[in-house]
Design brief:
about 325 residues, alpha+beta, 7-stranded antiparallel sheet, 3-stranded antiparallel sheet, 9 helices, 12 strands, about 20% strand, binds ligand 6CS, binds fe (iii) ion
Amino acid sequence: MKTAQDKYPSRTEGAEQILTRETPVIADDSATRKGPLTAEQVSAYERDGYLFFDSFYDSTAVKVLEEETERLRVSEEVRQSELAVTEPTSGATRSIFAVQTVSDVFSKLGRDKRILEIVHQLMGNAVYLHQSRLNLKPGFQGKEYYWHSDFETWHTEDGMPDMRAISCSIALTDSYEHNGPLMVIPGSHKYFCQCAGRTPENNYQQSLKRQDYGIPSDEQLTWLTDQTGIAVPNGPVGSILLTDSNLMHGSNCNITPYPRKNAVFVYNDVNNTLEEPFGATYQRPWYLGNREPETLEPIDFSQSLSQHNVSAN
Ligand code: 6CS
Ligand code: FE
């Protein structure tokens, strides 16, 4: 039974309003809390809803990640599992969810202390892994991800009470302005766009291929972009992008020969665990919304690579 008051109702057949966010974006002492971020970086994250770090991982780490991604991409066992989502037309693998359950490398990457230190500084609290996924956006065939707030889905379909989660996306290929990069609306995380339509039964079986519910109206998107425009925080393989769970984002189709792949780990506050869905009649499967939170034990990912006997390039 839901215990949290629904501060962010959506898909309730009500009006599609733009609500002002009540929830603080960062812990109130983030700017002074011990951590790798400068006060300016903390302030930029609070204002924009995202932080981009160019070349966060070096060529040694990138080599291991690229090889592991390819192993998973072509693995028939993974492709046949419930964790894999294929592209709507080509059948190419589009996403692999709960990647830490099929890959020791990605299980370690998701617990890298260099990422967790940043997340802890911003969140000010212990976190667990709500969701992870590889997005493989293949060349020529990678279809779009229409504009959406992840929190709107995680709130309505997974029962995430509040906007207390951060996504960390790690670039597994170069992300250019032309191969379907992620686009964000800076500052949009401070507003909640109520979406129209009631969530169909088992919506996720369609939405992960193409999202039709939980998308903002043209008017809402126009209003948001009128405030701050659109940014495309992209860069070379090994870069990372941290985004607030409620940041409005999307990406275009990839019609170039260059795939745009990333790994995403979603860190949720341990005090914000999933309840009953706020806007759906069913709970999504474990690999989309983790209902058995465990506090993450940080490791030094780069140091762990020595086990892979990877020599620096
Ligand atoms: O439904 C979800 O949980 C996923 N959907 C999208 C389009 N982004 C976030 C998340 O991976
Ligand atoms: Fe998303």
